[in-house]
Task: structure prediction
Amino acid sequence: MRLAVGYSATPLLPHLTTMQVSIIPLAACILLHSLSPSSATAREISVMQTPQGTHYAVGTEKYAKPAPTLFIIGNPMAMLAKENMRYLLETGEALAKKGWVYVVLDPACEGHDLKPGQPSSLSGWAIHAKAREDFLGPYLRNCIDVLDHLIAEGVTDAQQVAVQGVSRGGFCALHFAAREPRIKAVVGISPVTNPLALKEFAGVTAEQVAYISLDQALEPLAGRTVWISIGNADDRVSTDDCITFSRRLVTTTRKLHPQMNLFPVQLHVGMSAGHRSPDNAYKAAADFLLQTFPSPQIPNPKP
Result:
């Protein structure tokens, strides 16, 4: 039986209708992103659980409740304790200084989402796809469980929610936003947009990945704010596939929302070596989100 991930479309927000599509010319691109471990914040993140048992981590210490919230999906939470992985939190750390909360989720089939005996990471995705096993549906329900919990606890402002995904986490983030209309903006940094571009999916057919394809996310994401950054020669996740996805999202948005003059999709293609983010991508993502959402109240530090 073929599995399907179903989504529903979300209404437009008036203040999110003036974005543009932009591909940075190669001549204007900046140098390779090279974030040293010392430039990443070493503050610990706190791992918690929802009443349903879903794990998540909060990296923000002081904020006014409820606060704008950024979900980050990159590497498993346990890996973020390593100094050379802290760059994945750079966007969240920048937003935290402006009163945001950032929340870390494990990618699908990794960390706390990995079940005993389950194949892990991208190789696991491919095995599940071949077997028509739905690994994405339960994962997305857990993501929504965390969002529900944070809103119920008064931590998250339900009107100001964004998600950022890196590499395979970008694929998860796009699906999360497509499933959950309360997410108003999506950031993808060097995101997977076509599983068949991955070496782990060698031998997997288009029919086998149809149930996890981002084709299903196009209509629900239409009109939503999407910001993507990728290197100009990323042969790991495919720059070309990322560009194609962005163009298809614009086309879908134009079709479903003909009243719009500008479409809220931004694609930034910069110089990088292989599967590395273009220079300053994480800071640029933070700046974009700060421009997209109203400024929250920043709590005064304790004396």
